[in-house]
Amino acid sequence: MPNALDGNPQGQKTALAMSTVAFTVCFAVWTIFAIIGIQIRQDLSLSETQFGLLVGTPILTGSLIRVVLGIWTDRYGGRVVFVATMLAAAVATFLLTYATTYPQMLIAALGVGIAGGSFAVGVAYVSRWYPPEKQGTALGIFGAGNVGSAVTKFLAPLVLVAFGWHTVAQVWAGALVVMAIIFWFTTKDDPVLVERRRTGEKPKSTWMELEPLKNVQVWRFSLYYFFVFGAFVALALWLPQYLIKVYGVDIRAAGMIAAFFSVPASLFRAYGGHLSDVYGARRVMYWTFLVSVVATFILSYPPTDYVVQGVNGPIAFHAEMGVVGFTVTIFILGFFMALGKAAVFKHIPVYYPGNVGSVGGLVGMIGGLGGFILPIVFGLLLDLTGLWTSCFMLLFLIALGSLTWMHFAVRQMEQEAAGEKLGELPAFPELQGMEKRSRKAVKQGAAILTDWRPQDPVFWAEKGRKIARRNLWLSIPALLLSFAIWQVWSVVVAKLPLVGFTFTTDQLFWLAALPGLSGATLRIFYSFMVPVFGGRLWTTLTTWSLIIPALGIGYAVQNPDTPYAILLLLALLCGFGGGNFASSMSNISFFFPKAEKGNALALNAGLGNLGVSVVQFVVPLAITAGIFGSLGGDPAMVKSATGEAPLWLQNAGFFFVPFIILSALGNWFGMNDIASAKASFSEQAVIFQRKHNWIMCWLYTGTFGSFIGYSAGFPLLTKTLFPDVNVLQFAFLGPLVGALSRSGTGWLADKYGGARVTFWAFVLMMIGVSGVLWFIGIKEQPNAFWGFFASFLLLFFATGVGNASTFQMIPAIMGKEMGRLMPQATPEQRRLQAEKESAAITGFTSAIAAFGAFFIPKGYGTSIAMTGGPDAALWAFLIFYVTCLAITWAVYTRKGGLLHDVERGRASPAAATA
């Protein structure tokens, strides 16, 4: 009834205002046991479990009754049902003061819970006053009545201390009666009920009201509300005693601090409704669950004493969140819970306009049951574990499970449609299958590209190129930081002996090699993540993960007594940066057409590889100055040519933290997902049946594996062979040459063919490693270092060229192969399949090749340990390059090879079509 609604703005405002105030009073009564329950617990000597059952009982009643009250509101109107609900709850609350035993308290608490059922009444009543495009904001304002919980926490402790808990119950009951009277005389029946009476239309039967509840999506939709609302109610009840027991504050202070959770979790619900109207509920729900996962993880960490057995004795330190940190974190959690509550209820009146009462009642009931069940479980967990933070551990698991479930539901929905069909899907996956007309009420998120045709010249020129380049230029800094964190040990390890660490040469080579091992292993998994999770989300999460090793390094290197095992663990965590390359390349490959794919991947990888050079250039400078002041810790005094000098080795990790934060935020707000670039792991696993996947793994190990392995091992190898040379002055030049040659020679592969360029790259690499062997043999002669260094620069240059050309080969190979593998498919189907398999192969080959970052430094160490020099390892590398050269020629470049005709402009019709 949009016309009637738009013509009665005064009725809308009055209905919304009075409903919000009434719900605030009802919610204050519904959570009254959060305060008076503490005194009752002392009077009756209740256990933790008994207390949890007492405070949860009103929540149970208020939840279960919501479906019934919602149906009655649809049938008889919200005005009369709201007033009846408040009067019934007032009677039960007043009679509570006559209860003297625990069973009597439980019975009275059941009646008090009637106040919680008012939510279903208010949702149905308010929604009938507003058109669909304004219902999100209106229901968000109404839902802000949750602030009644904060009202109780602010005022009830004052009344309790002054007059006792009986007075609190009596005053709160009186407030319900007064509110019921005011509500009756200031509001009117909703327009739907008035129109039904005017036309003589009979209300729907109860069975018709319950019909939508058969839809399984509604039940899944309800379970999301279990966290955003149920956990809010549970914490509103649990926090006062948590604060009293954990932080030793009195009941008044506990109420005030708990209000820092309840207030934002209530008032900002109105803002959440506005955001849902403008941006769509899915985006709001993503932010809600992401922040909730982080917040509950922080809150769940119990106070802990650590004792590390150092060389000079035990090292003890204590980790615990203070009351200020707890208050700030709980405020943030409450804020995002408020947004989530509004986002969930944005959809009810839009998708079920004729069944708002029953559907809203069910959703509210499931959420309310969370408020009943969770306090009981909190008590049980406390009794079983003895950990007060166990309640947040449970909430962390629920939030993480909800986020995972929602995301995979979204991805599954998107995989089944693309283009215009995807644009018609609802903004929340649980509502798929609802009425098509209502879907337009929610705005589709701009982050998802539902129409992506990079091979279409018109589309590419008008729209595609700009979007693709934006994603590329956001991907490059994230990848650069990933390489920097991955290779930071190549600099740190060389400096560890200077600051007091006493490790053998073999132990130092292990530290330099382990990031390569973990990074390569992670790449195997990261290769398949972009089509599963989406490039935007996965790139953001993996960029955030770099903070863990960055901060860990910063703290660990400040103490020379830090155990070797801890440094080994941090070396493994640096592999997070190595793993990111596979997913980054896979993501960017989807954005560009075949003609520009080689250059785009070369830019992404080449400028990303600059992170290796950056870390070897910047870190030696950053560790010489106290750039973070007192926050960065004290320097170590080390010997130098001019005497002792301060060294802040911790800056090797701390320096990158602000850049990681900026890059992660840029990825989230600036990058896109491509709707058609969706595939499950099983769909991508077909690459394991492709022989060219394994051949390219071998060849790319020869190029990229050499680049990253030489980057990791060059500083330590040079320091070992030429101890009089300040290697860190030159070490960055090798990776710099390799990165620039990769980013600057991608056009060669696009123009002349990746296989031909790869062939000559291996020739140069063979020359380079031969030169290294020659100059190692005459290392005692003058200027031998410069010959050694020049040979390595040639090696780095050749690996960069080969890195770009091998990646250009992959889409060319799969484009050619699709004509043979899918002869009956359309050209578009072949193109999409070739892109998906190329992306997966690109990621997987980078994973296998990354093991070079482990085997080359470890090969040096093993060769030196067994033979006294690195010569044996270098001879093994030379033989490996010979096999790569032979394979490239035999399979791809010779006449009759797979890419011979393609690269010489004589592609077969099948290949051209593909």
From TrEMBL:
What organism is this sequence from? Answer: Ciceribacter naphthalenivorans
- Chief location of this protein within or outside the cell: membrane
Q: Which SUPFAM superfamilies match?
A: MFS general substrate transporter (SSF103473)
The UniProt record lists the Major facilitator superfamily (MFS) profile domain at 14-414
One matching Pfam family is MFS_1
List the keywords (alphabetical). Cell inner membrane, Cell membrane, Membrane, Nitrate assimilation, Transmembrane, Transmembrane helix, Transport
GO cellular component terms, alphabetically, are: plasma membrane
Q: Where does this polypeptide localize?
A: Cell inner membrane
Provide the protein name.
Major facilitator superfamily (MFS) profile domain-containing protein
Query: What are the TM regions of this chain, as residue ranges?
Result: 21-40, 52-73, 80-99, 105-126, 138-163, 169-187, 218-239, 251-272, 284-301, 321-344, 356-381, 387-406, 472-489, 509-526, 538-557, 563-582, 603-628, 648-671, 692-713, 725-745, 757-778, 784-810, 839-860, 872-892
Family membership = Belongs to the major facilitator superfamily. Nitrate/nitrite porter (TC 2.A.1.8) family.
Question: Could you tell me the membrane topology recorded for this protein?
Answer: Multi-pass membrane protein
Q: Tell me the InterPro entries matching this sequence.
A: D-isomer_DH_CS1, MFS, MFS_dom, MFS_trans_sf, NO3_transporter, NO3_transporter_NarK/NarU-like
Q: Which PROSITE patterns match?
A: D_2_HYDROXYACID_DH_1 (PS00065), MFS (PS50850)
Query: Which PANTHER family did the record assign?
Result: HIGH-AFFINITY NITRATE TRANSPORTER 2.3
